[in-house]
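Chain entry —
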Amino acid sequence: MKIVSTVEARMGSSRLPGKTVMEILDKPMLELLIERLKRSKLIDEIVIATTINPKDNLIAELAKKIGVKCFRGSEEDVLGRVLNAAKSVNADIIVEITADCPLIDPDVVDMTIREYLNNDYDYVCNINAPERTPILNSNFPSGLETQVFSVKVLEEVAQLTNDPSDREHVSIYIYMHPDKFKVFCIKAPEELNYPNLWLTVDYKEDFEVIKKIYESLYPKNPEFSFLDVIEFLKNDPVLKLRLEGRD
């Protein structure tokens, strides 16, 4: 059974164009994310799922430089792109990660994968978004989002829906249909129970926070954990506010 992480990445973000390759410590943000993901003990391979848009040539070139596979597909049909990216490397299990989570923690990723492997679920995640559906109530901070499901399940979803929203958000159909799929959302351990903490890069302000975290922690320990991030935030009088909610 081959476990593959698909990383959705493109240059055309509407909120912060080009964020994927914005540099921190002379490295593109996507490269730093992949560095962290490579430390997972359970992922067999990583494939970047980008688009056929010429703007994304930069992402394909970066993938080659850092030694990971790259699949290029539709800009709008992200579900199809992720599915075909996984199939291009003969995946059985997909670990879906998005490029706007540069602080992804390999231990949290493995925790989510392990929950999937040890149980009879169709889908396991650690998303905290109860406003979408009460199922997504992990209490994990934003920026650690990991979703695990089989290629077979995503193939089924691809046959069931052509709704543009479903195709854009990949796994939304799965967790919004617990009548069709066995869905499970893991709970954050106490030390990671910060549901209001926002460390996903959507806007320039988010990027500046991530940049400050990397510049403070990475030179001392490139393998810093998310717990190190929390301790850093607690000791920064300005960024401490992020522990209570987005500033």
The mean pLDDT is 96. The domain at 3-243 is CATH 3.90.550.10 (Spore Coat Polysaccharide Biosynthesis Protein SpsA; Chain A).
